[in-house]
Specification:
This protein is 73% helix and 0% strand. It has helices at residues 6-34, 40-62, 73-92, 99-106, 108-120, 127-144, 156-175, 181-202, 214-220, 228-254, 257-260, 266-279, 285-304. It starts with 5 loop residues before the first helix and ends in a 5-residue tail after the last helix.
């Protein structure tokens, strides 16, 4: 295989991330739309089954199905387990939070990725970049407003989800030395299906379904037969997820984690756009200020490069 110049790899990683973020924003629309009628595990089972043939096709054309027989399968499945925790918590915040607020809180992920890249991957993170990461965390506090009396407990979920997501993408960076993005994406989908099916068994006939909170309802309500429109939307999440997972995985496989991660912030553009277009949501002043702090910190982390010692 022909080697790709480091600069070109970084650019490919950045472009791949931007595409993946946009593609996944389309899935966010669907999941928020159906979150009041179906449980999260039903949504994820349908999505994962619909994604499977597309991911198999991507593996076949990129590297061949034999690549699924890999000695790294244990570590790959561990990454998939981390990411199903991440995405489940992220989705559970949707019914209780405006879309822009949920995505804004998710934006702690690029800063966590940058920090973990320094600690675990030995990518160079200087003092000023660490300060920027800490400043970014303050943006999350501005959005959450702890102690204000308006904090919905569900707002914690995207934050925890973002931390788990960061660990998953750090593993993608490490595994990317020997594994193709399509293989990682395929096994991630396998774990999504397995985890969602397990959740369906655990929460079947659960007493939690009687609790009057949108997040608990999304987690514990019984399965329901989707309407034709809802079924089409959920099945559409299959190819959306297949493409999104591939592009995001490829982004962290190709580029340095602390360089590509700040481009996760392009998701705010789509979250604000879709939230206003479909639900008439206008971000609050606190959300806007918090996002500005997060965005400023993330862009500084990106642009400061390796100047810090």
């Amino acid at each position: 295989m022909t080697a790709i110049a480091p600069g070109r790899r970084q650019l490919q990683g950045i472009l791949s991330l931007c595409v993946g973020v946009f593609v996944f924003s389309l899935q966010d629309i669907v999941i928020k739309r159906v979150s009041g009628d179906y449980p999260v595990h039903e949504v994820m089972v349908i999505r994962s089954l619909a994604a499977m043939p597309f991911l198999l096709a991507i593996v076949h054309f990129e590297v061949g199905l034999r690549a699924l027989r890999t000695s790294k399968v244990g570590l790959i499945l561990a990454r998939g387990s981390i990411l199903i925790l991440s995405y489940t918590l992220y989705y559970l915040g949707f019914p209780a939070l405006p879309l822009a607020a949920a995505v804004s809180l998710w934006f702690i992920a690029p800063l966590v990725i940058a920090g973990l890249a320094g600690l675990l991957l030995r990518e160079r993170i200087g003092v000023r970049r660490w300060i920027a990461i800490m400043v970014g965390f303050s943006g999350v506090l501005v959005i959450l407003r702890p102690g204000s009396g308006v904090l919905d407990p569900a707002a914690i979920l995207p934050v925890v989800a973002a931390i788990a997501y960061a660990f998953g993408q750090i593993l993608a960076r490490r595994l990317g030395e020997t594994q193709r993005a399509s293989v990682l994406a395929f096994y991630q989908n396998v774990m999504f299906f397995s985890g969602a099916a397990l959740m369906a068994l655990v929460f079947r006939d659960s007493e939690l379904a009687g609790i009057d909170h949108p997040t608990i309802g999304f987690l514990a309500r019984p399965w329901a037969v989707p309407t034709m429109i809802d079924l089409v939307m959920l099945l559409a999440c299959g190819p959306i997820a297949a493409c999104g997972v591939y592009f995001l995985t490829n982004a962290y496989r190709m580029g340095e984690a602390n360089v590509v991660a700040p481009f996760e912030y392009t998701g705010m553009i789509w979250a604000a756009t879709w939230g206003f277009a479909f639900w008439g949501e206008v971000p609050s002043v606190h959300t806007a200020v918090g996002v500005a702090i997060l965005l400023g910190a993330g862009l500084y982390v990106m642009h400061s490069g390796r100047k810090d010692a």
